[in-house]
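Customer escalation, tier 2.

The customer says the design service returned an amino acid string that "doesn't look like it belongs to this structure." They asked us to rerun it and document both sides in this ticket. The original structure tokens are below, unchanged.
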């Protein structure tokens, strides 16, 4: 009997537990960072749209699929058929030994990343993405996969993989050419930019995923802060950690996300949805 149970595919177990409903609870780390950012992601996706044309989104870092579902909901609502979401993720451990040694969520996250649960849960959670919006999945190192994707092919490219400095810088370099002119280049976890936090402080903590600014006590990702500072060379538009730029022939300009329709992710809990509306004053 034990052998029969142990050979049950994880995908079947997830189906048995949750039916077709997505699952982000327990210790899945399903909702990461300040998830109110998703309403701005949806606004950015609308800013990336061209009338009557399918919209192609590239997401670097998908974990168990929460951000992918927000993109999908926005495309289903506003984009024409033939649109797509391409997800690139390692679905394998990437946390440094230094961060794992801190224990807590880093150690837990790393243990989960050693299993196939995140990948299978991503597949389970994104099964609704089909039909008018296609889902393409690439599993592997972003630095290997991004160079194989077509340059200028994406209306929006979202960077949310590893937050360690070298990894973010590499992702920005490889991802930038994939955005079409007029498209949106954006990413997650830029809570503080260089300038708001001292460059010396950022450099001192550069081997860590997350730290606190000693002056203000605010938490931030030093790797994301330094990589964005070096790559863009200026302060960039950013709302509660979600950064966004419009690619132009000569570089990047600041897009406006105001006057876009509000999308509150349907896969969020009722409390999270209410928090999003409160944040927007709706
Ligand atoms: C912050 S999570 C993504 C969260 C997701 N965007 C969301 O909001 O639901 C970061 C993801 O990046 C992936 N990742 C880390 N390093 C990577 C690499 N070098 N190449 C591809 N994916 C990577 C991890 O496997 C993890 O799933």
């Amino acid at each position: 009997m034990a052998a029969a149970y142990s050979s049950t595919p994880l995908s079947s177990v997830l189906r048995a537990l949750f039916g077709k409903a997505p699952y982000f609870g327990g210790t899945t780390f399903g909702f990461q960072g300040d998830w109110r950012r998703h309403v701005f992601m949806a606004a950015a996706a609308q800013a990336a749209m061209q009338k009557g044309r399918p919209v192609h989104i590239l997401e670097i870092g998908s974990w168990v699929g929460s951000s992918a579902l927000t993109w999908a909901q926005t495309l289903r609502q506003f984009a024409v058929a033939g649109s797509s979401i391409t997800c690139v993720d390692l679905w394998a451990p990437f946390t440094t030994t230094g961060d794992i040694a801190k224990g807590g969520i880093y150690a837990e996250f790393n243990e989960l990343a050693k299993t196939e649960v995140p990948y299978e849960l991503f597949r389970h959670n994104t099964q609704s993405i089909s039909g008018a919006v296609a889902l393409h999945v690439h599993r592997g190192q972003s630095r290997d996969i991004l160079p194989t994707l077509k340059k200028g092919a994406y209306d929006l490219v979202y960077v949310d993989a590893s937050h360690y400095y070298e990894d973010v810088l590499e992702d920005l370099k490889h991802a930038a050419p994939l955005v079409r002119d007029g498209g949106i280049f954006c990413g997650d976890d830029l809570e503080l930019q260089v300038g708001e936090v001292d460059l010396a402080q950022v450099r001192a903590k550069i081997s860590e995923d997350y730290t606190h600014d000693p002056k203000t006590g605010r938490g931030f990702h030093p790797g994301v802060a330094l990589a964005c500072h070096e790559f863009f060379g200026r302060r960039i538009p950013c709302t509660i950690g979600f950064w966004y730029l419009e690619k132009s022939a000569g570089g990047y300009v600041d897009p406006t996300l105001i006057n876009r329709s509000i999308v509150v992710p349907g896969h969020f809990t009722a409390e999270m949805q209410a928090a999003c509306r409160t944040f927007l004053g709706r």
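Tier 2 assessment: The sequence is consistent with the input. The first strand starts at residue 56 and ends at 60. Residues 66-78 form the longest helix (13 residues). Sent an explanation to the customer and offered a walkthrough call.
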